[in-house]
Amino acid sequence: MDSAHEDFGLLPATRRALLHRVATVQAEGRAPSLVAAVVREGRTVWSVGRGEVAGAVPDPAATRYRIGSLTKSLVAVAVLRLRDEGLLDLGDAVGRYVDTEEGADATVAQLLSHSAGLAAEARGPWWERTDGALRPEPADLFGDRPRPHPAGRTYHYSNPGYALLGALVERLRGEPWYEVLRREILLPLGMERTTYGPEAPHADGWAVHPWADALLPEPAVDTGLMAPAGQLWSTAADLSRFAAFLLDGDERVLSAGTLAEMRRPAAEPQGPDWSLSYGLGLQQLRRDGRVLVGHTGSMPGFVAAIWASPDDGVAAVGLANRTSMGPLVPLTADLVGVVAESEPRIPETWRPAGDLAPELLEIAGPWYWGALPFALRIHAGRTLDLTPLGDGGRAARFAPGPDGTWTGLDGYYAGEPLTVVRRADGGVSHLDIGTFVLTREPYEPGGAVPGGVDEGGWR
User: Fold this and answer.
1) Which of 129, 210, 398, 455 is the 20 to 30 A CA-CA neighbour of 89?
2) Which of these, 376, 421, 371, 366, lies nearest to 396 by C-alpha position?
């Protein structure tokens, strides 16, 4: 059984390919039910439900599933909002805000990126299947080996680490972490059906027998202090709104700069092909030549995934109600690939940047770092684009600052200043990019090139 929704905006062949991929994974993965959705340029352009929930095809807009560790990404957004407000620094030790013996010296950034070296799981029996009352205080979160790795040395996924971040949000906001998320993130993004616990209509969690087509109910407990690591429930429609946020941002929730910070790798890549890495609350996945950002999640009886490709303007969401359904993660990434490859993004219409001051136009054009040629182009908003024209060289974009300089946005020059150096007569002498000098001619004589230029010239 299936139910398709909001399939406007995609070509019939694309919709058919998406449906075939989802139907195949639901059937071969033996999922009692599965919902999926695709977002393009900020709106849901396709969604579908397969299987049954309470005897009916699940509605991607209304049926709630437990989203597991996708909760972590929402908690990370709340933490970064606190940072942007000046209430904390990512280099602060979490013990400054949370009364915890274990992990107190871990920095906020290390907890966000799973590089604090803390244990992967909470103390005691399987925390995802046991009541949070078994761990009533932060001291109860950690077992005999609370830190198997040195802080800051390696990536090691830690669920208790995000429990500490939830406690951090509560400490600085003075209210429960979920209420903070609902007011500051969920409602502004239109995620009204994302809830702390299951609310009707919702899917039940199931385990599927490995050798028979039979189901076993899974518990859905309140995990207490561990809840920031994986408690929440949501719908495919709500998560599509979060996926749109990951693609394009929303200044009501986070600045574009902070969202970009979340999407950048902050921990070492994993896997023999270095295909996975982790940013500040977001995973990065390299697949089929594109870099996707998002998160995966699982709780007993449920799996979830969001993957977004900002370069393609496409994201996908998948939710299912069976334990350990491995195909869901590649499925969601594949849905992004189907749309991106079948219907490539249409470039924005080019328009002139408007009136450009003469001092901007006079720095446009060719420049040389030593003998290596570059092109410097001026774009709208006084942004600069530096592109190497030969073999080698470092490309970068630069944003203008109020002091007449520019700051690198990416690559080697991220955060580095670009300064236009002028002669005494006001003419442009050279560009200085973090002490690297670029001149108008290869090794131009005249004193700008550090170390000087041989007086005999080229020969």
Assistant:
1) 398
2) 376
Q: Which of 456, 440, 455 is nearest to 371 (CA)?
A: 440
**112 and 68, same structural domain?**
yes
Give the span between the Cα atoms of 97 and 84, in whole angstroms.
17
pLDDT tens digits, 132-166:
888 888 888 887 788 889 888 889 999 999 999 99
Domain identity same for 382 and 326: no
238 belongs to a structural domain: yes
- Give the sign of the dihedral formed by CA 246, CA 248, CA 249, CA 250: negative
> How many domains in the chain?
2
Q: Are residues 403 and 255 in the same domain?
A: no
Residue 57 is classified by DSSP as P
Based on the domain organization, do 282 and 390 belong to the same domain? Answer: no
Strands (E) across 225-371 are located at: 233-234, 276-278, 283-287, 290-299, 302-309, 314-320, 365-369
What's the rounded Cα separation, in Å, for the pair 296 and 206?
A: 18
Total-model pTM = 0.90
394 and 305 co-located in one domain: no
Does residue 2 carry a pLDDT above 70?
Answer: no
> H helices within 351-442, ranges in order?
358-361
CA nearest neighbour of 26 among 323, 328, 236, 330: 328
For residue 143, what pLDDT is reported?
79
pLDDT per residue as tens digits for the range 163-202: 999 999 999 999 999 999 999 999 999 999 999 999 999 9
Q: Concatenate the DSSP letters of all residues of 188-219 into one string.
A: TTT-TT-BSS--SSBPPPEEE-TTSS-EEE--
Which residues, other chains included, contact 117 with Cβ-Cβ below 8 Å and sequence gap of 6+?
Answer: 106, 110, 147, 148, 149, 150, 151, 152, 153, 154, 156
Whether 126 is in a domain gets the answer yes
- Listed in sequence order, the residues at least 6 apart from 418 whose beta carbon sits closer than 8 Å to its beta carbon are 384, 398, 405, 406, 407, 408, 431, 432, 433, 434
Mean pLDDT computed over every residue of the chain: 93
How many angstroms separate the CA atoms of 341 and 312, rounded? 9
Rounded Cα distance, 320 and 5, in Å: 17
Domain of 368, in residue numbers: 358-438
Same domain? 17 vs 107? yes
Q: Do 80 and 231 contact (CB within 8 A), yes or no? A: no
Residue 74 domain flag: yes
Is 456 within the bounds of a domain? Answer: no
Tell whether 368 and 302 lie within a shared domain.
no
- Distance, in Å, from the CA atom of 344 to the CA atom of 314, rounded to the nearest integer, reads 10
Give the contacts of 339 (CB within 8 A, at least 6 positions apart). 10, 14, 18, 38, 40, 45, 312, 314, 316
The 3-state DSSP class for residue 291 equals strand
Residues 383, 277 share a domain: no
**Alpha carbons 184 and 74: distance in angstroms, whole number:** 10
